[in-house]
Each structure stands twice: as structure tokens, then as C-alpha cells.
Hints:
The structure is a homodimer.
Chain A: H1 2-11, E1 13-14, E2 20-21, E3 29-30, H2 32-45, E4 53-57, H3 62-72, E5 75-79, E6 90-97, E7 102-109, E8 118-126, H4 130-141, E9 145-155, H5 160-166, E10 171-179, E11 186-187
Parallel strand pairs in A: 4-5, 4-8, 8-9, 9-10
Antiparallel strand pairs in A: 1-2, 6-7, 10-11
Helix pairs in contact in A: 2-3
Amino acid sequence: MLLLQEKIKNEGKVLSNYVLKVDSFLNHQIDPELMREIGKEFARRFAAEKITKIVTIESSGIAPAVMTALEMGVKVVFARKRKSLTLHDAYTANVYSFTKQETNEISVAKEHLHSSDRVLIIDDFLANGQAALGLIELVQQAGASIAGIGIVIEKSFQEGRSLLEKDGFRVESLAEVASLTNEKVTFKEEEGAFV
Amino acid sequence: MLLLQEKIKNEGKVLSNYVLKVDSFLNHQIDPELMREIGKEFARRFAAEKITKIVTIESSGIAPAVMTALEMGVKVVFARKRKSLTLHDAYTANVYSFTKQETNEISVAKEHLHSSDRVLIIDDFLANGQAALGLIELVQQAGASIAGIGIVIEKSFQEGRSLLEKDGFRVESLAEVASLTNEKVTFKEEEGAFV
């Protein structure tokens, strides 16, 4: 998605070979026009899948997920990282964060996921794949089917995609970052372009 | 906002005289069509205010805030409850949650709030007003001006509105719940209707 790639090039900050900060439009400040375009693109890519529910995780997944849901005419449910006081009967999974070096129990209320659902999972980043795997686990506990995983920014030099594809899941990423070395964002399609 | 009141009547669950659960469309599962209507209504009410930025707090404020921002053509920044590893130079405030009986330090990166900003604060609920007061504090630290506070659901039997109005802030709530007694939602305009 060219618009997203341009935004990453112009506003993304490479903090290390592994960390890309996109706080100006996705993870802290949010650009709603860009989110709408992202929603349209996910809706287009999964148009044939008869999606009935979008599942994401708080907080940064919510904006792209809601815009995709608006385009598709379905509802979103976001998994919570901290148990709500009013959330009792829930599917739960453990998600390890390599960045924060901690495990969070994520949860979704059983009443919002059904075995008849055809689910699209949306998240802001794909790196090690741990959040996506946790969301898949929640959806599978409900007996629902998974049409695929829609990712805004994939760090394709990490193992997330291969873990998900190994399990047979379709992964659609709107920007695939091949490298963050030399303080520079290189997208997958640019890689080796000058070889 | 009638559409919202109907949704609360039909799907809201009164858990106690103080707790209204709206997890089916606002706080856990999200109804994107309703969020769009909410965004349009906030944009209409604050149309004259020349808003340049919307400030909200993760997680449940994000969906209504993003839709309002889309309508208004501005960006949103959401305050974080837990400090991000990549968030260093930030405005911070302490927010006490009566429900959870804990204090969270909320923060917004300085680069996303400027003294020239005219801010609309959006949140999902107004009860004791502590979250709104914390957000106001962040905006004031930046030297930005505050056009008002847009609330999706106000529990008007709690003190939030009076605390905010005492400080001179305009509060616009799309649904004002006057009472949750007898396991029933009574809106402000219904109160005393049969007296």
C-alpha cells in the first residue's frame, strides 16, 4: 500500500535494527484518513471471505480494525490485555512480548465470539507473531473459523509470517519492512532492487 | 442522541446502581456504524470550535475519537495508561480509578500536543470525572486550549460533570444516564416524566 509506505518513509523513526516507531500516525497519534484507507484495503483484500467479525487487540489494533469493520459492515471485538472487572466468562490466551519481556493474559468475552463466525484478525504490527497466535487461539477456542490475518506493518525479517503460514493461515500485510539496518526503512519490494 | 439511547436500552446491562455494562457496542465489542454516527454528532456539536486535535485515552475512547477526528479532518492522540518503551519526552498526569481502586499514570508524547492546538477531549464514559481531569491536565501542560469534553455516556448521578463545569469546561454528553436503580437505565430527559 503505497500511501502507507510513504507515511512510514516520511514519519517513521528507526530506533534500532528491530524497532520502528510510528507514533505519529498509528500507535499513539492516529491519522484517521489513513486508517480509512487501510480499512478499505483490508476490506478489498478479504472481500471474498464473507467475514462476520473482526478480532483485534487493544490498543493500537483498534483504529485500523474499526475502519475495516465499517467498510465490511461487521462488528469488531478487541481482546483485552488486562482483565476487566466486568469480564467473567471469557476465552483467554497467554501472549509473550519480546519487546516488553512480559506475558499478558489476553481475553475476549465468550458472548462476542461464536462458532458460526468467520473471523478476520487485524493488528498493527507483525513481528514475532505472538499477539497474532494468541488471537488465533481465542478464536479457535470459540470454534470460529479464521479467514486470515490483516497486518498494517509487517517486519518481514522476523519470524511472525512464517509461524502463521506454517499453520496454514493467510497473512496480508499492507507494508512489509524487509530491514531497519543503517537507520533506514527498506521495504520488501525495494530489497535487492540495485543488485 | 436517540440511536445511542436505544442501543443502551436494548443492549446495556445494569450490573449495579453504579455499573452499566455496554460491552456489546462500545467497551469490548465495537459497533462501527454507531461509532460513525457518534463521530458525526460530536463534529456537529463542536463545529464552531475550530478543533485542531482530539485527545482521548486508551482503549475505549479510541473508536469514538477516531470517528470524530475523521469527520473533523484532524488527528487523534490517545493518552497511554502504561508508559511505552519508546515514549520518553511526555506530559504525564495521575488518574485515580474508583472502579479499579488504582492510580494510573497517563501520558502523551510532547511532540503530539502543541500550544497552538485547540483540543476536543473525547471519552467513552463520564462518572467521577477523574479521567477527563487527567486529560485536561495533559493538554494544559502543553499550553493548548480546550474547546470542551465530548462524552459518549454520562452517568449524571455522579460528580464528573459538576467538577468539569466548575472549572469552566463545556461538557457534551450523547447519553445522560440519570439513574441505574431498580436494574433499569433512566435517561435524564425521562426523569420525573411521570411525576
